[in-house]
Structure formats: C-alpha cells, structure tokens
Write a structure and sequence with these properties.
The protein has seven helices and nine strands. By secondary structure, the chain is of the alpha/beta class. The protein has a single domain, classed as 3-Layer(aba) Sandwich (Rossmann fold), CATH 3.40.50. The protein has a five-stranded mixed barrel. The protein starts with a helix and ends in a 6-residue tail after the last helix.
Length: 268
C-alpha cells in the first residue's frame, strides 16, 4: 500500500467508500449533500500534488451520499500546471490501494454543439486525447498497454442515464476532446474538433481515465457544459465564466449521482 493510501486509511477509520469522485472547476457544491463529512487537505496526504487553480479546493472529502460511503476529490491537478500528464497518478493509485473500484470523473467543458448549451450535462461515452500526452509514458511494465475500447464503463454509463430518466433530467451523451490548456481553444481548433467527432472540449479527465484503467478502476465521467466553445458566440472565453456557470449544471449532476448511489450502481 502506498504511503498516501496508508495515511488516508488511518484518517478514514472504518469508512469504506464504494466509489471516488473527482470534482471539476466550480463543482465543489456536489459535496454539500454529504453526511458526516471528513475533510483532509491534499497538503496533508504524502505524495499528493497541490493544485494552484482557483475553483479547485484541493482536499479529500469522505462521507455518506445516497446511503453509501463516498470519497470526493474536491480539486484536481491539471497537466498544464506541472507539464506532467501523470500528475494525478499518486492520487488514483491511492484510490486503488484503498479498495475503491469505481471512479466518477467530472469536468467543466465547452460545447461544440448548438443543441448542448451552458447548463447541460453530458455523459462521456469516449474521448479524443488531442494533447498528444499520455500519463503512462515511462511506465516500464507491460501494463502500460492499456485497452481503451470501453474506457468509460458501459454499465455505469447506462446507470447514469437511467438515473437521469428516473429524475426527469435531460442529459446528452458525447465525445470529450482533451486539449492541454491553459489557453482556451481557437475557433479554428473548435471547427477541427467538431469535424473529428468531438461534442465537448476541456483540459482534464482523459489522463485520469487512462490512469484509472491502468490501475483497474471502472470509470464513468460527465461534463458540465459552462459555455459554447470559441467562435460560436462571438465573445471571448474566461475562467470566471467557467466558475460562474459550473454550479448550474453541477446541481443537476449532484442529483444524478445521489440517485445512482441510492440505486446501488456502485455496489459489489
């Protein structure tokens, strides 16, 4: 067990989370429904990276949601902060060591579709790693040859869609394209993304998905749409817009996650 996992096991005590969830920019409100929360700053956990992005709290939150024990990672560290696609590896490895078997990834993203406006929730069915980076570069074992045909677990995606249907929440499904950031995409890049089959664009999630699959975790992911992408409205993009709009879709996503947990989607 890694030092990170050993420390978290000590802090968690008898808690045994059935899944872990990474919260994207402005999505920290997802933890407001958590019962009996335990907060552990990333800075206290050996080997955990520290984020310098506003809107990312940088802490582990353990508690009950939908009647199940859950581990939230409020804040992530991005490739563009460190120039390292594997910067979240210690975190995801610790989750594996703790016995977590499913990882729910969330992000704030720009839509390249007119029919998927700000406030929408998109279930990620596949991704395009346009940055060209891979968090397993340098890994010596043959485990680095990770199959990605079903990177986003079909059963968990179906259960997320079913939760949306049960609650009457409209959701979209689509392909997420990972750009390295931190600058936003150009209108020409967005036209390219649309041509290549992307539905949303962002600066995270893909390296975490690859790492999670490397460590044997099931993955489900959802994008909260905060803006229409560059060139679609005539306006300029900003991180402030992301932080302002994310809570709107985040509140909808929170209800879906709670319903998934209550329905036992992550049990077993």
């Amino acid at each position: 067990m890694s030092p990170s996992a050993e420390y978290l096991r000590f802090r968690l005590g008898e808690r045994r989370p059935v899944m872990a969830m990474v919260l994207g920019s402005g999505l920290g409100s997802l933890v407001e429904r958590v019962e009996a929360p335990l907060n552990v700053p990333f800075s206290e956990v050996p080997g955990f990276p520290a984020s310098g992005v506003s809107g990312h709290a940088g802490k582990v939150i353990a508690g009950r949601l939908g009647g199940r024990e859950v581990l939230f990672l409020s804040g992530r560290v991005h490739y563009y902060e460190k120039g390292d696609a594997a910067v979240m590896r210690p975190v995801i490895e610790a989750l594996r060591d703790l016995g977590v078997r499913a990882l729910f990834l969330t992000n704030s993203a720009g839509s390249v579709r007119e029919d998927m406006p700000p406030g929408s929730v998109m279930i990620v069915e596949d991704h395009i790693a346009f940055s060209g980076m891979n968090p397993l570069i340098g890994e010596a074992s043959d485990g680095r040859f990770v199959g990605m045909t079903a990177a986003y677990d079909p059963d968990l995606r179906e259960r997320l869609s079913a939760a949306a249907g049960a609650l009457g929440e409209p959701v979209s499904t689509g392909v997420y394209m990972w750009f390295s950031g931190p600058s936003f995409e150009t209108p020409a890049e967005i036209r390219m993304a649309r041509t290549l089959g992307a539905d949303a664009v962002g600066m995270s999630t893909v390296p975490e998905t690859i790492l999670a699959r490397f460590f044997g975790l099931r993955v489900v992911a959802a994008s909260v749409i905060t803006n229409l992408a560059a060139g679609m409205t005539g306006g300029e993009l900003s991180h402030e817009e992301t932080k302002t709009m994310a809570p709107m879709g985040g509140a909808r996503l929170a209800r879906l996650v709670e319903r998934m947990l209550a329905d036992g989607a992550f049990d077993g």
